[in-house]
Amino acid sequence: MKEKLLPLFLPMLSLTCGWTLAQTPPPPTPKPHVVEVPQPEQPSVATASGDDLDPAKVAEYQKRFEEGYALEQAGKLAEARAIYDGILAEEPKAKRSLLEAGKISFKLNELARADDYLEKLHALVPDFPEAIELLIQINQTLKRDVKVELLLRDFRELHDSGKVPELSQSLCFVRERIPLGQQEIVISQFFDYTQDPNTVWMAEVFDPTGELKRRLLLNYDADATRALRAKDAKYAGTQVFTWFEHVLKEGQVKEIDAYLQIFALPDYQKFRSAMLVILADPPKPIYSAPVDAPPH
Fold first, then answer.
1. 89-114 pLDDT, tens digit each
2. Which of 211, 218, 257, 279 shows the smallest number of beta carbons within 10 Å?
3. Hey, CA dihedral for 290, 291, 293, 296, is it positive or negative?
4. Radius of gyration of the chain (CA)
5. Half-sphere exposure of 277 (CA within 13 A, CB side)
6. What distance in Å separates the CA atoms of residue 277 and residue 269, rounded to the nearest whole number?
């Protein structure tokens, strides 16, 4: 395990500071993360800014949309999307049809098609959180790194602006979904790791029923960072991060295991690679503590 994991962090592990993890209390359990950010008022079915549509036509679109939405809720995704596409052929700015068609395409793993629908929606409604979050996930999977960074910038700015209060109150968002056999890994990114619960990224493994099976976290350790900087001026710009796993029993966190400390924040791809290694071959913890028990 060490031979697999350490090369991923070798440039960051060159510092030796004598810090032991036993001096650091385990981090708090993060509050439940937001998989789908609560939304402001949903985009309307057919109307777009500046458009004056015949009320009878709007009512027709509404009826057709409701038919499509009922099919979507029944799991008939292709049939539902065909109805949304019919609306969009006549009214390309039908925002709810763009949203639902994009969500269906994402579920069907037709990522380029999902990206097309949601980019059009994003252009019409730039401050709609769900569209941005889905676009981040789509472009992350498509390995469009530059596009992901631009979307992340937009999302942080929207979060910090306060324009969408529900979003501004959210700690994190879903950055990527990774199939893992019959399971799924959901990776969440936190908006500000310097704030409680000090998490940078969180990877959660769900079984086919949606039950949470494992949770890995990369956390910023403010106490260890302050101690390291106080130890030597050459570490003035150093930050300390620790890999943790929440050990789950019957869906509850019963223990927190720490695996590794690093001294610089890895980029997302290094985090992702290390996360997959840890999930496949968990290392021996260098520190463990039961939840709600004092650190030893």
1. 999 999 999 999 999 999 999 999 99
2. 211
3. positive
4. 22
5. 19
6. 12
